[in-house]
Amino acid sequence: MKIILKNRSLLKVSGKDSDEFIQNQFTNDIRKLNHTKVQINAYCQHQGKIIALFWVIRMDEALFLSFPADLLEKIEARLKMFVIMSDVIIEDVTNVYKQIGLINESTTESFRINDSLGLLIEDSKTKVEGLSENELIWNKTCFDSCLPEIYNQTSEKLVPQMLNLDIDEAGVNFSKGCYPGQEVVARLHYLGSAKRRLFSFISDHEVSIGDSIYCATSEAALARGSRYKGTGMVVTKVKYDSLFYCLATLDEELKDEQITLNNNHGPILKRINNE
Fold first, then answer.
1. Which pTM was predicted?
2. How far apart are the first and last CA of the chain?
3. What is the pLDDT of residue 275?
4. Where are the domains of the chain?
């Protein structure tokens, strides 16, 4: 199935220093990126918290960054600020190309995200046969793949480990050179101190990106319930067949406890055991 992705921006990074520039800014090793796959990369601030999460592809002689559209203005300005004297050109090409999500199919021109998802970049004037506008199915498949995103509501609030990007180095390479926030991210990794992870949940109540999640067990242990403290955050969500599905961060030790939304008495989120 081919689905047009309308809510994603696309930046083109070109110039002879483009690889070095991206290598010095993002968490993954751009030197390992070929012309057949998508590489997940986090763009962190100096405290190690993720500003944006990119799908990076290598096409022709340039690198393309795909990410949620609500972060375009923030990301484009920030990246350009760090170009300085490098031979790097950053262009917003969102309207020049179509971004097409592929579910359980591939083409010779597509880029593989994982076993079930792919990305196709086409000239905006090109007519693509069999194209669907049903992004709901795409979002549900991304949920089923535990594929996280960062939106404006969650920007600069989560470190890569909270999105499981360190597992099998899916989005963080620990042997590459420095990048903003590298010391914090590496310290969490080597000290084994990342306690909050990404989990899948389902609910029959509405869920929104940025919502807090709670655990009464955690509250009882904290100041004997004298104050509330969230134990995680909703990262992505999709409504499908009248139910709400979401990926949310949660303290790993609480994964088998009762989890509620926005306060200790809110709607229950049921964890899906797909980890």
1. 0.93
2. 26
3. 59
4. 2-144, 160-272
